[in-house]
Amino acid sequence: MYKISVVVPVYNEEGNVAELHREIKEVCEKNGYTYEIIFINDGSSDQTGEVCRLLRPLKYIELRRNSGQTAAMDAGIKAARYDYIVTMDGDRQNDPADIPEMLRYLTENGYDMVSGWRKYRKDTFMKRFVSRGANFLRYVLVHDGIHDSGCSLKVYKRECFQGINLYGEQHRFIPALLKIKGFTVGEVVVHHRPRISGTTKYNWKRTIKGFVDMISVWFWNKYASRPLHLLGGIGFLFLGLGGACGIWSVLIFLSGQKMSRNIMPPMLTIFFCILGLLMFVFGLMSEILMKIYFGVHLDSPYSIRETWENGEE
Fold it and tell me: Which of 24, 127, 229, 234 places its Cα 20 to 30 Å from the Cα of 97?
């Protein structure tokens, strides 16, 4: 008997939330789950909030402003109270009917998290093209072992989110973040439906933000506990180049040539030596900041206006 919390960030989805709520409720009751449905209104400017207030059962969270899908998802996850957390998009392209299979696959194989794989996507060509490019870069930089990290339909054990705060566009890289912490990740092919109502919220700005966050996850995976290894290594490289340019300068001087005619070698010596020292100092400062980060509680990037809960009909 599963106890699940279904977390759904919504932004300007007035035409989708009621039907999505009905589908989630139908799946949960058909399979005998103990469940809660959590909708997080990410600062919608349409009637999404008014529609949500009519739905039961529902735990509703409204953010004061549009803070992004990741922030809304983080707020919903923190409000969840059951053993398994299911996340999905609010545009109805994810199919709630896939939840039972994902739960079964997670428990039978002993995974901590199972991600959906939209193998046959119902998106535009450009969106699929950008997504495949992003998946290739993610494979090269992060290599989380799954095909479709961008699919919001995922199932987690509750303990996956202990001590984790999500920022930026990091909801796409949760599998990588969990693997860094030692959790096991699986993947299941899921249905993907065409959008019927509303408009897509993805644009070139989110693509760029996602790429920047991918670099952040790569750095976190490789050097979060040892930033000095990266920055200090680069610093020593520059110091080595400065030393080579210094030797070049000495050879020019010993050959009797006028240094005024060969000013580049000494200038490069000074430049590389200063840059190398700066990188090494930045590495030491980053090491200190990482220790502070791991030792204090971080502020949240979003603000909740209100939270309420409708009971059963």
Answer: 127
In whole angstroms, give the CA distance from residue 244 to residue 24: 66
Q: What is the 3-state secondary structure (H, E, C) of 201-265?
A: CCCHHHHHHHHHHHHHHHHHHHHCCCHHHHHHHHHHHHHHHHHHHHHHHHHHHHCCCCHHHCCHH
**How do residues 27-49 score in pLDDT, each as one tens digit?**
999 999 999 999 999 999 999 99
Q: What is the mean pLDDT of residues 275-279?
A: 89
What span, in angstroms and rounded, lies between the C-alpha atoms of 90 and 41? 10
CA distances from 79 to 13, 73, 155, 308 (A): 21, 10, 16, 11
Determine the longest span between alpha carbons in the chain, in angstroms. Answer: 95
Q: Which of 202, 168, 160, 166 has its CA nearest to residue 184?
A: 160
Taking CA 45 as the corner, what is the angle to CA 53 and CA 4, rounded to the nearest 5 degrees?
45
- Helix, coil or strand: residue 114: strand
Output the six-digit token pair for 304: 């909740």
For residue range 218-232, what is the model confidence (pLDDT) as tens digits?
676 666 667 777 778
Task: Give the helix ranges, DSSP H, for the chain.
Answer: 17-30, 48-52, 69-79, 99-109, 125-141, 174-180, 204-223, 227-254, 264-295
300 pLDDT tier (thresholds 50, 70, 90): low
